[in-house]
What does this fold into?
Amino acid sequence: MAILNAVSVALNTSAAPRKWLTAAKGTTLNGTSGADALSAPNGQATLSGGGGDDTYVIWDASSRIIELANGGIDTVQSYASAFALPDFVENLQLMWTGSAGRGNALHNIITAGDGSQTLDGGAGNDVLTGGTGANTFIARRGNGSDVITDFQAGIDKILLQDAALYSFGAVQAALTQLGTDTVLSLGGGERLVLRNVKASLLSAQDFMLPADPTHAGMRVTFAEEFNSLSASATGIGTTWKTTFKINDQLRTLSTNKEAEYYSDASVGVNPFSISQGILDITAAPGSNPLGLAYTSGLLTTARSFAQQYGYFEVRAQLPAGQGFWPAFWLLPADGGWPPEIDIFEMLGKDPTTAYFSLHTTTGPTTTKSMSLLPDLSKGFHTFGLDWQADRIRWYVDGNEVAEAATPADMQKPMYMLLNLAVGDAGSWPGKYDPSLPTGHMLVDYVRVWQAGTIAPPPSVTTVTGPGDVTAAGGTYTLRPDGLSDLYDFTKARAAIHLDAATMSAKPVHTVWGSALGDEVRAGAGTLNFSAGAGDDTFFFGRGTSRVQGGGGNDTFVLTKGAIAAGDQIIDFHRSLPGGGEHDLLRLDGFSSAAHLDYRAGTKMQSYVVVDGTYVSPVITIQIANAAGTLTQADYLFNRG
It folds into this structure.
C-alpha cells in the first residue's frame, strides 16, 4: 500500500512475511532474499534481512539491525520503550503504549497503536500516524516536511523544535488551510501537514513550543559564568554551599542509596575545578569520613539565592557510565520537603534520556522523561525550567520536552542545587561500575530570569458564560467558524464552577481548567475538558465529552440517561495498593441492580452500565497508571 508524504512522494509498506526466523541471544541471524520476519525476543542479537521486504520484531534496543540500500521495503515492529530506526530501514511500528520512536534519513512511515506514544520522523519527509490515545508528534525544523494523518486537536500534542515559533500567535500566523488539510510553515521551505484538520480548531494547548531565547519581558536575577568559584561548606558569605540543607552540612543522601560523599577542599578532596570558564564536578573513588566508595561535588544556593517563579537554565555536559546521576533541581527556601522540582536528572547508563520530576504534598511524585535525545555526554546541552504559578514547562536545548500543572505547594521561593550523585546497590541509577571509575559533570553556566509573581487566588469563581471569564483570570475565544469556543482558565486565580447548560448553545465547547479544584458540568452539546492539577469533578451531559483529568484525585460523574456515545476519559488513574493519585468514576441515578461491565481493551478500555433492560452507550476509559480493569475501588454507584 502506498501513502503520499508532504512532497507527494508515494511511500510503501512492507509485504507480508513469508518466512519467520528467530535469533537466540548473542547470535547473528541472516534472512533470505524474500520477505522475512526476523525476531530477537531475548535481545542482544544481530539481524540482517538481506534482500526483499523484511519485518524486524524488536523487544529492546540491545539488538542490532543491518540493512543495505535498496534492500526492499523494511519495517521494524518495536516493543522497546524507545527505538531509533537504523539506516536503510523504511518504516517503524510502535507496539507498546508509552513508547517513543524516531525515524532515519529516509522518508519513513511511523505508526503507533492504542495509548500514548511519541513519534519523531527524524530527517526525511515522513508520514506519522498516532492511533488512539494522547500522542506527541515531534516536528523539527531542518528535518524535512512531515505529515500527521490523524492529529486530534485537544488531545494530541505537537512538539515544535528549533522553529522560531515561540507563541501560539506566531503559530497561528504560520498556519494555512489547504482544502481539508492544515499546513504549518516551519521556515526554510519546510512544513508540517495535518491531514483533515481545520486550522480554526487548533489551540495553544495543541502545541509545545520552543523557549524564546531572548526571554522577552524578563530580567536576569542570577548569573554564574564560572570564571571563578565562590563556595563553602556553610554557604555563609559565598554564592554556593557545598553541603545539603540550609543550616546543616550533610554530605550524602543515604535514603537514596547513594555511594558518594560530597566533598570540598575543607575536608580533603576537592571535586571542583575550573578551566576557561567551565566548572568540572568530578566523581571518583576516594577515601572520606563516611567510608563511601566515591567523593563527588554538590553546589546549592541555600544561603544566597532563592526565587519564586521564573526561568532557570544550566548548560552542561553530563557523564556517561553506570551509576552516575547528575541533576539540577530546586528545594524550598523555608527548608521543608517536599516540594521539589527536578529541572533534570540523567542516569549515566542511558545518556540519551533525561527525567523531569515534581515531588509534592498534593499527590504522588510525577516523573516525565524524554528519550532519544542527543547523547548528553558528548557536547554541551541546555536544560531549562519555566516555572509559573499555573504551569511548569521543561526544556532541553531550548525545546519544550514536558509540562505539568503547578501543584499548590510550589507557590513559594526555592533555591537551586547542582550535583553529581553516584548510585550504590539498590539505587535508581544502579550501582556504580568499577571499570568506569571517574565521571565528570562539566558546567558552563547557571542563569535565572524572572518576570514577577502573582497574587494568591480567591477560592471559587462561578462561570455562567463568556462575561464571567475575564473576572476569573481566564480568556474566552469564539472560533472563526462560529460553531465552537474556548474557555481557557489555565491562568485563573480561583477554582472554576461552570455549567454548560447556562452557556451559549454552541455545538462544541472546549474548557481548560485551573490548577485548583474545578467543577464542570456538560450540557446537550459537545464539551471537551482538560483539567488542571487540582481535585476536579466533571459531570458528563447528554452531549459527547472527552475529558482529560490532569493531576489530582478527580471524579468523573455519569448519570443514567445522560451518557452519550463517544464519551471518553483520557487519563484515568486507578486506585492502587501503594496509594498515590487516584480517580473515581461515579455513577448516578441507577438502581440497586445496576452494574458496570467491562467490554474490551487494555490501556484504552470500553465499559457499559447495565441496569435491567437499560444498557448505556460505550464509555471509553484510558488507564494511565496500571494494568488491569477497573475494580470497585475505582467506581461508585451513587444510588441516593
Remarks:
- DSSP finds one helix and 57 strands in the chain.
- The longest strand covers residues 439-450.
- Helices lie at 168-173.
- Residues 168-173 form the longest helix (6 residues).
